[in-house]
Amino acid sequence: MTVEQRCSDKNAAAVLCPHTTLTSDGIDALVLETDAGHRLLARYRRTQDNGDLDQSIKHFECALGLCPMEHPSRPAVLFNLATAKFVSHQANGTYLDLDIPITLFEDALKFRPAGHADRPITQLHLANALLSYFAKRGLKTDADAAEELLREVLRVCHSNSHVYRAALLAIETSAQLHLARNSGANDVGQERPVVPTFPLSLDQLPALVQWCLVEDDPRTLNGVIFLHYHALRYYNLMHASRAQLICNLGVMLRTRFQRQGNIQDLNEAVKFLTQALALCPRGHPDRSKPLHGLGIVLSARFEHRGNVQDLDDTITLRREVLALCPVGHTDRSVSLSNLADTLSILFKHRGNAQDSDEAITLHREALALRPVGHLDRAKSLHDLAMGLYVRFEHRGNGQDLDEAITLYRESLALCPVGHPDRSKPLHGLASTLSARFKHRGNSQDLDQTITLRREVLALCPVGHTDRSVSLSSLADTLSILFKHRGNVQDLDEAITLHMEALALRPVGHPDRSVPLSGIANGLSTRFEHRGNVQDLNEAIPLHREALALHPVGHPDRSISLNNLARGLCSCFDRRGNDQDLDEAITLFREALALCPVGQLRRSIPLDNLASTLSTRFDHRGNGQDLDDAITLNMEALALRPVGNPLRVGSLSNCANRLSTRFHLRGNYKDLDDAIMLHREVLAFCPVGHPDRPISLHRLADQLSTRCDHRDNGQDLDEAIVLYREMLALLPVPDPRRSTSLNNLANQLSARVHHRDNDEDLDEAIALQMESLALRPVGHIDRSTSLDNLGSKLAFRFRRRGNDKDLDDAITLHREALALRPVGHPHRSISFHNLGLTLGHSFKHRRNQEDLDESLESLQSALTLLRQHDPFKVIVHDSLAQVFLLFHQSGLDGTGEHLNAAMHYFKAAANIVSGGLPSRLRASIRWVCHAHDYTHGTELEAYATYMQLLDTHMSVTASVSSRHNVMKDFPSTLVVDAVSCALRSGDVCRAVELLEQGRTVIWTQMTRLRTPLDSLQERGDHAVVLMKKFRDLSSLLETPPANHTELEGTPRVNVEAEASRYTRLLEDWNRVVEEIRKIEGFSRFLLPPLFSDLQDAARDGPIIVLVASESSCDAIIIPHKQPPTSIQLPTNLEKLPKLVSTFQQAVQRDAGPKRTQPELIKALRELWNDVVRPVVENLGRFARPGSRIWWCPTSLFNFLPLHAAGEYRGHGQSLSQLYISSYTPSLTALIRARRSHDKSLSVSFAAIGQNHPAGHSFTLDCVEPELELVRSLLPPPPTASFTKITSIDATKSRALRVLQDNTWLHFACHGTQNYTEPFKSAFLMRDQPLSLLDITETDLSLHEFAFLSACETAVGDSKTPDEVVHLAAGLQFAGVKSVVGTLWNVNDATVQRLVEAFYKNFCGDGKMNSKRAARALHRAVQSLACDKDIPLDQRIVFMHIGI
Fold first, then answer.
1. What is the predicted pLDDT for the residue at 1321?
2. Distance CA 102, CA 112 (A)
3. 85: left (phi > 0), else alpha (psi -120 to 50), else beta?
4. Fewer Cβ within 10 Å of end Cβ, the chain: N or C?
């Protein structure tokens, strides 16, 4: 057990003397009394309660009574009692009381002879007591005795020790007291000091300076400054001590600036200290003093004004000071610390990581010079910890933060309760723990932070200079606690504390803006929580006042700009005033401009501006705002590398806005990127992190979206796994659990549609039941749970036919409807769900009352919907289904119900606000039912579907995204529409529908490349129209707030939202009409007319092949004559078998002597069933030997039509009669024929790759083939030849060559990717040159391409009418004439065909891309008798284009 001796004099540092071990029988009582005395004395220092002081003295007196004279702890007990008595004297102000503590200190000193470890501290306290006596009585003997004690202390103590410094200060105090006695004044400084005849001596003035630094007395400070000015008049420039005098004056002026805030004092201090430095040139022994002093005042002026030149000058000065303190110098640690502090400030200002690293290195060296026990170790620990903390904020390295916390804890241990500097490590530890909470989410760190902040505030009682800072710090942490736990009492307390801090910083105070901003931010947050608009109204003026205190040039202006802007954003959210939003964006832009590119703090205004631009996009629909927001978020993310604690916020922002842009424009890259970013966010939220549930939800939601668009079951499975984990993290009674149950149930229900797994449906229903149980009667979201559960039970009934499920579903929907009375925003949903379920009940039970009520409910739902409510699509569709039930049940004797059903299907497809995907699905249902009932609206339904598909694709961003979208729709609808038109006898309409519905992907690509993009060439007005069209189209893809929202979701001003959507739609229509007024755009967004399409046949007839369930037809389109349709003797049963036969036949190994009978048989069938009926009708339109073009659809795309024939002696074949070419569409052929200026010289490039990346095989004939091509081309200047092969044939090089040359020959391996066709590619040395790469390249001036590679003209079986393959891609990219391959080519035999082709193509020295088809035709014929070339290799090549 120990008795602790404490020093209490206010001018001395707190010192702990060595512990003395007690061994007497009364040890326990002695220790208890001593500890009680110390606790009460410490509490007295905090509370100034005299009762605590009196009780402390009584406990120490009891301890003295328990400690016998000979006991080794007696001097400590005497010292404790003396200390308490001395403190009592100071409190009461009666000098007679000093006799007792002086006597006690003297008795303690007797027990501590020379050499005793505790003798100096005892002498120091005795000297202070004697000096206090001298101050009261004026007896010189008291002062002399005190000074003798102090001189002995100085002799035995180290100059860096607290005791030494305290003794030195006491001696200076003694000199001050002598001065006061001699002048006859009680106070050194007075309001109007009397000017002495002679200045004070240079020994007296420093003592006065030290006095002023200790005592915060304005009169004393002003008096001492006056005396220094007075002294300067007598000590001229040549006086040896003038520099020291000027330094002291500078220190006094800086001190007055710190206490009173007058910048003129700081400027004067800079001036005088600059003079002092000039008086101490390099080499002067005292040069370090003005260097040090000038560095301090320049640093202070930078903090006040923000002029970086002051900071640069400070660093220069402090580097010189450090150079004057080499290793071993007593002041080196101080110089290291000062320079490190300044470099840290520079880092915060400029963000240069090297400054931060150097500062930390210097602090480490300073700490090493201050080992355990050193007087300033606590400061070095604090400084190093702060440097590491700042670096953590920049780089996010958790090790820096952990080390900083460890250092702060050690620093705090060196400043126990009662230590005058305890508040510093308390504050530092609180800041770092708060940062670690934000970084890792550990609530214990936040709780410790609050505890530490409260202790700091307790150390700053009313009247303390740092109280306002402590109030603000605690308030800020309570605000964080509120955001974490949602306890509004924490927020109220935070606002109260900020208000108290504001009261301590009246108008004119340099830091008034801090509590102003704190109150304003707190009020804004409370407004968001409680919705009291008075809080918001009070917050904005406070933000404006804070901004006014930070004029242009102020270092904190950007903070005030951000705060005011955020407040205005809240105003906008509340009132919807566009001016508030625009002003907020202006303020955020100014704040961003104040943060140079690359600077650390720039990431925050980047995020703020991005968020506000995103809000304005949501409000006005300007796509540029969303694009700008994403760009800004990406820049912020780049400033927050892995490990940065703010990175997770940037990741979330980027992901959410990319997701928004995906829903608007349909670019799958945005969705994929959003998912990737959400995955990284989740990695930042490990198990146990408070934000993990929301991160799981966001990632699962995006995966679910991707599954909806791509039908990827893996995404759905992963979403379910994530939702399960989220649910496990939200046990009862977490209020979010019911929503989590609902999310998981919805995904499981969705998986039923994918996997047909009843277990998923059962689990979904069980989850919905649990969700409903968590929403008892009276819960705001109960009706939603009732509806959800009812819908899933109805779904299960449709699958299993369990009457109980049906009855329960109806009951639940009725209860939900009852909870949504007239005026409820979701009442129409309940009517709809009830009506739909009653319709199912009628189909099951044939009870007409159910059907009648179903119709009544759905009509009620429809009447409740506003004009542009997107839910109308669903209600109309359901009404159509009910009317069909009337018709199917025989209750429709007149056919009116069938007509009504078609009317509602049509209406659903034409509700613009419903969004294109929903309208498309409605149009498909219209098509199917009109077809089934042979209704008169069938052809109109097909036309509507294709018009909607065209419009939908026009606002879908990327080529690959369009292909994925096409998979969502039935692949046969186009050919079915054509068959419908043919059955009605309208062949021209059939061609129009075919052209409108086929090759939609390529059509959209060419449309956006030529007509729409070419608007840029039609003047500024056209450019504005183009931008408006794209922006409005994107916005219209997102319908107005609809009735599928969860209950409890705020719906702001439904009428205004509907009005806004109507206005957007009107604007879109006006823009389209304006575009159509521009020359060349009269048919903009309108399907092509047959009269325009017929021009594709000007060089020869086009044969369109159509395969549908009803029939297989050929349409011959001549140039001037009407088209002719021919029904072919084949059908959809025979065609797949024929395609399969071809695929199997060409895969068989055919040696030189094999005749490939299976292939010949298939070619004969192709001739008989498809080609011959066409040839028999071609005579009227094309002479033998002329050119014809095939435009196949559906399965016809996979057949070698050009090679069809009888393949027997004297038998017919197509190649004997006509020269065949292919075209993906009529529009593509028209576009390929457009003329452009041709170069006199042909730039021909041959691209070959014999050993592509990732493949073990080598194509031995690539090099010889390219050399063969070179030899067969005309020599320069007719043709210039470029060749890249082997190592040079990389993807990037091939792309460059592709762009730079208009005639191309590829000799390499080609692959058709059947899963993702746009990844079909030519294999290069490093990476594949994909079809997507080609589509993104402008080849509009290109003439010809020969693709000597495998599978370059093989399409995608899932979307055959989109013709997605390499050859078509080149043509749609702009190449006029392309030779491609239908299947694999034989490397050993292809050279002979290539040689024959080029001899026919350019053997006469002329180059014309129109000759390619005839050259290929002749080449194949010339090799017909070559038995070394298998038949499949002779017919593998096909020609596409002109």
1. 87
2. 15
3. alpha
4. N
